[in-house]
Design brief:
The model has no long low-confidence stretch (mean pLDDT 91). This protein has 16 helices and 21 strands.
């Protein structure tokens, strides 16, 4: 075809003592092309092992009939017959004289017998099969077989012919039986399965339920390639040594992703270029990391960890434009609330984190049961200009297994008695973390034997002054917490409630130098 290609030890060739004549099983070379001036033709027909041809044509961006056939396996027992037929056609159409056939047989496949257990076929297909029906199928397909009866019941042993490269395991023979027997004759719901109750883990929801939960939070699902641009790996994962593809489908999609964020940012940019002003997307997919501890298995590849992740991105207004809510851009706390709802009924913790894709002061690590399971935060400012984004999107990436493990519902008694609600406003330094304060207050309540009364303890207000005042310094902030106490056995006394508030104040004063706001 006029192209010049570079070959190596991975590519089979046909050559003489001067030069390469052609790419084996793919395409002939220019030196062997036939023209109207050709008078002598040397015919060559060969069998090439499928493993020796697979992927080679795509490597050179070729699509040839020869490669298509050899990749899937051709009949190695009829090569001489092919040569004779081609010779006969040339003599019939063009005339001339044929020379002798030189048949070289080297390293041909050895077809091993494949066993089919009748009981196994009945169990897989969900129907009863007689020996006569299976015999009829193999006879119609001209598959040589023997039939024996042993400990496994009736067993058919089939020797695949040279042209059937698709018969290697027992399931291949079961598929042939089903195909000839007739799929339309196999009931859609076999009686053996109608009354079967399969065990399920009720404390673990399915991937489909997680995707529905994300869609219910106003995210739209996208499906991206698992191979991405190398630049995305450097930018969003600080990965300078990604897993490279040996045969990428495109030059820019040359590495396997270790994060879903690059694909989501790219799809936001795609939508913005088409005049979309509000974009909320999510993806559930696999990422790829090097891990020497991973061994080969049914669903694993040695040296590579391939966890499933769920990631989302929100760009633009927090809500669709409407009269009832003022328009404002989506922020960190909007998406933090989405993440919390996804983990319900479990309560995740959030801690500051340094992440290459996220804003250093507006990012958090998500922790569930003491284990980090993901991140949430605003995209780093450096990537806004790099990827032509006007506003900063907020993203999250979470381990799918952590989202699926929700546990079983637990009963808790509902109190007949009124709850006691107290608000506590304190002033602390701005660098103090609210989560640390909540942990200290809960620990103090537990130590005082009052923890079982706590229904909720939450931050409901924050105030940071723009200038120093008598009550709050410029480096301080005011935080307001709401405590709800309730007993299932009796109405709580004021002394108990005041004691709870006092131990909380003492814990904040001792641990964070907090003072009550006047």
């Amino acid at each position: 075809n006029g192209n010049t290609v570079e070959v190596d030890e991975q590519v089979g060739v046909i050559s003489d003592d001067k030069e390469i004549e052609s790419l084996a099983g793919i395409m002939g070379g220019d030196s062997t092309a036939v023209s109207l001036d050709t008078t002598n033709i040397y015919l060559e027909a060969a069998f090439w092992w499928p493993n020796a041809i697979q992927g080679r044509a795509r490597r050179y961006n070729f699509s040839t009939d020869a490669a298509h056939r050899f990749e899937r396996g051709v009949d190695y027992a009829t090569t001489v017959e092919h040569i004779e037929r081609i010779s006969a056609l040339i003599l019939q159409i063009c005339g001339g004289q044929a020379g002798p056939v030189d048949d070289q047989i080297v390293n041909l496949p050895q077809r091993q017998p494949v066993k089919l257990r009748v009981a196994r076929a009945e169990r897989v297909l969900g129907i009863e099969l007689s020996s006569a029906e299976i015999t009829d199928v193999f006879q119609r397909l001209q598959l040589p077989f023997t039939r024996t009866v042993g400990a496994d019941g009736e067993v058919f042993e089939v020797t695949p012919p040279s042209y059937r490269f698709d018969l290697e395991i027992e399931e291949d023979l079961i598929e042939e039986v089903a195909r000839i027997y007739g799929f339309e004759r196999i009931p859609a719901r076999p009686p053996v399965a109608e009354s079967e109750m399969r065990p399920t883990n009720e404390g673990r929801r399915s991937q489909h339920v997680v995707r529905h939960a994300l869609a219910a939070r106003d995210f739209n699902e996208v499906i991206n390639f698992a191979f991405v641009e190398e630049k995305w790996e450097r930018d969003f994962a600080a990965n300078d040594n990604p897993i490279r593809l040996l045969n990428p489908i495109a030059s820019q999609l040359a590495v396997m992703r270790s994060t879903l964020l690059g694909g989501l940012v790219d799809k936001v940019r795609y939508n913005l270029n088409r005049k979309a002003s509000r974009v909320r997307l999510f993806e559930v997919g696999r990422v790829f990391h090097r891990d020497a501890n991973v061994a080969d298995g049914g669903l694993t590849v040695a040296g590579y960890h391939q966890p499933m992740m769920a990631a989302g991105i929100a760009y633009g207004p927090a809500f669709e434009e409407q009269w009832g809510v003022a328009t404002r851009p989506v922020d960190f706390f909007d998406i933090k609330g989405d993440v919390e709802s996804l983990f319900h009924p479990r309560t995740p913790r959030f801690e500051p984190v340094a992440h290459p894709a996220l804003h250093p002061g507006r990012a958090a690590r998500v922790i569930v049961d003491g284990k980090p399971v993901g991140v949430v935060g605003e995209l780093h400012p450096r990537w806004l200009q790099e990827y032509e984004l006007t506003n900063a999107p907020v993203v999250f990436e979470l381990e799918l297994d952590a989202l699926r493990d929700v546990g079983l519902p637990a009963y808790s008694e509902i109190s007949k008695f009124p709850a006691a609600v107290r608000d506590l406003a304190v002033v602390v330094k701005q660098q103090v973390r609210v989560q640390d304060m909540l942990d200290a207050m809960r620990a103090a309540l537990d130590n005082a034997g009052l923890g079982h009364f706590v229904q909720s303890l939450a931050l409901f207000d924050e105030f940071r002054p723009k200038a120093a005042s008598a009550a709050i310094g410029v480096d301080e902030k005011s935080l307001a917490f709401r405590l709800t106490l309730q007993d299932t056995g009796a109405t709580l006394q004021d002394e108990t409630v005041d004691s709870a508030v006092r131990c909380m104040i003492d814990a904040l004063t001792a641990g964070f130098e907090a003072r009550l706001r006047g």
